Amino acid sequence: MIRILLADDHAIVRAGLRALLDSGVAESDSGGDIDVVGEVATAEEAVAFCSTTAVDLVLMDLRFGPGKSGADATAALRELPDPPNVLVVTNYDTDADILGAIEAGAVGYILKDTPPSELLAAVRSAAEGESVLSPSVASRLMTRVRKPDTTLSPREIEVLRLVADGHSNREIGRRLFLSETTVKSHLVHIYAKLGVKSRTSAVARARERGAI
Fold this sequence. Notes:
single chain, alpha/beta, six-stranded parallel β-sheet, 10 helices, 52% helix
């Protein structure tokens, strides 16, 4: 039996996932092997639940509003004595979101528009610790491998996100504990990778690519 925790701040999403998982609808004959043992609405609650209850797999959203993110919770879960596997189920597919989740320790990353039969197959695979990626997510990761010189690093994405929020180099340095010189260096590399010459153009190009 696969013991699952649903972690999403939208009750209607949790209800939909529970209905799908409880139904055991799949092309295989393995229906009935899934048990939803709990639901939580925040990242903090997900960590607390798994700290006291045996869970094999957490279906984790990425954004919960104020507080910890899904990636934060994933990293914390992986530090538990008997950590559950984490399958990210979200609407967000930017490079920053994908990399943040994978680096935090998620075994899979799928989008909420995934067909039910594929979601069920992903759940069973992720519960076994197998890597599971939506096609668009896999494509983004392959692009990073094939074109590393034109792909923004996680730190560059952090810098550019703060640029997009209107922060100055000094403010970015303060938030990321970097010197202004280092921030400027990151921006130079960002401009070169994106083929632009200004902060505004860099933000626009990155958004076009889905990097931020």
